[in-house]
Specification:
Blueprint lengths: L1 E9 L2 E7 L3 E6 L5 H17 L5 E3 L10 H4 L8 E8 L2 E8 L6 E9 L2 E4 L4 E2 L2 E2 L5 H7 L2 E3 L10 E2 L16 H7 L18 H12 L4 E6 L5 E7 L14 H15 L5 E5 L7 H16 L3 E5 L3 H12 L8 E6 L9 E2 L19 H7 L6
Parallel strand pairs: 3-16, 3-17, 11-15, 15-16
Antiparallel strand pairs: 1-2, 1-5, 4-7, 5-6, 6-7, 7-8, 9-10, 12-14, 13-14, 17-18
């Protein structure tokens, strides 16, 4: 499991050390650095997956496009490079990247592993010395990144080879490929819902019903075409409909459910705004679901603006679906030189939070104060 990420001179951070847990929640105001933490990991993932033998970090690829070196190096303290560190179990990896400000990729100037430096490496495999067989490489390569901009309803969905559609994709574009090709694969035992066979398609359908009662899924390949259709229904009394005729939320949550139920222990899921297009009750349920997935051994880092999702996680802690020490909460603030850029509120075993910094999911209370004393 990744236990810490460290950033030096990356985007809005002069320096950041962020301990990670089974489930790590990133919250805070817009443009405060939450997405930057996820993007740092995605830069590694897309370089590993698209350029296995590269000695350069690819800033633009299929997963993410961040522009030039000038766009990713901290404009206040940085110049030509940044450092990215990861602790995976007991091993510490640090990459030092440099490049000209107009470059679209960055050279790996130095890789440090538990303090042993590999300067200006001539050959790397998965951004590590070729002779090193590290579990970290597999975890990063298989990492799933799901953005807030997920694709909406479609008439048909492309069917990709399993070597291409390894994960659901940043926009959920490979969701139906992953679901169709692995429809009969088992899901992790702790995530199996009783009453349904332990096959991925049936378990995904059952899990969707917890969010949308009566939901049914039908995935069919179009004859002689590399594509599938998705049928959805919201009641057992109705026929299956095209996705465009059902609530938008179903197609937004489906990539998350498929990714979670396709994951294996020690896989990593990065999810932006899982609450998009969900009713508040569904947002709280999503928090509980993510806690269950993390407890099953899948590491999750989620960025959210939803207090309902946070409260769902708190309920999961209180209900002993996940231990409090397996959850990390972070609140990000814009850098101003006076306040800490990142605050770490603590959860206890009852789901209580020890500290509520200004701006940390407190808007409801602020709004209610405006009504105090009104007739």
């Amino acid at each position: 499991m990744l236990t810490e990420i460290e950033l030096q001179h990356f985007k809005c951070f002069k320096s950041l050390q962020l301990p990670l847990r089974n489930l790590t929640l990133l919250s805070g105001s817009n443009a405060s650095g939450k997405s930057s933490v996820l993007q740092a990991l995605v830069l590694l993932q897309q370089t590993l997956r698209e350029h296995e033998w590269s000695t350069r970090l690819m800033l633009n690829g299929k997963s993410i496009k961040l522009g030039t070196v000038a766009d990713v190096v901290d404009k206040v303290y940085g110049r030509r490079g940044f450092a990215l560190g990861l602790t995976d179990d007991e091993t510490r990896y640090t990459w030092h990247m440099e490049g000209e400000r107009a470059d679209l990729s960055m050279s790996v100037e130095r890789v440090s592993i538990n303090g042993q430096n590999h300067a200006q490496p001539k050959a790397l495999q998965h951004l590590l010395p070729a002779e090193l067989e590290a579990p970290l490489a597999r975890r990063l390569k298989n990492l799933t990144y799901i953005t807030a901009e997920r694709i909406g309803p479609r008439e048909v969905y492309p069917l990709e080879d399993q070597q291409i559609a390894v994960v659901v994709g940043p926009a959920g574009e490979h969701t139906l490929s992953v679901l169709h090709s692995g429809r009969d694969e088992p899901v992790l035992a702790p995530l199996v819902l009783a009453g349904e066979p332990n096959r991925r398609l049936r378990q995904v359908e059952a899990r969707m019903r917890t969010f949308f009662p009566g939901c049914g899924l039908e995935v069919n390949q179009i004859p002689r075409v590399n594509a599938v259709t998705l049928g959805l229904r919201t009641s057992e009394a109705t026929d299956f409909h095209r996705p465009v005729h059902v609530g938008f939320g179903l197609t937004q949550i489906l990539p998350i459910i498929v990714a979670a139920l396709s994951a294996q222990p020690e896989d990593i899921l990065l999810i932006e705004n899982p609450e998009v297009h969900l009713h508040p009750a569904g947002q709280a349920l999503m928090g509980q679901f993510l806690a269950e997935v993390a407890q099953a051994g899948v590491q999750i880092i989620v960025e959210t603006h939803s207090d309902h999702l946070l409260n769902g996680i708190r309920r999961a802690v209180k209900g002993q679906k996940i231990n409090a020490d397996q959850v990390a909460l972070y609140f990000f603030r814009p850098r101003d030189g006076e306040l800490d850029q990142v605050v770490n509120p603590q959860l206890d075993k009852n789901g209580n939070i020890n500290d509520w910094p200004e701006g940390f999911f407190d808007q409801f209370d602020k709004d209610m104060n405006h009504f105090a004393g009104w007739d």
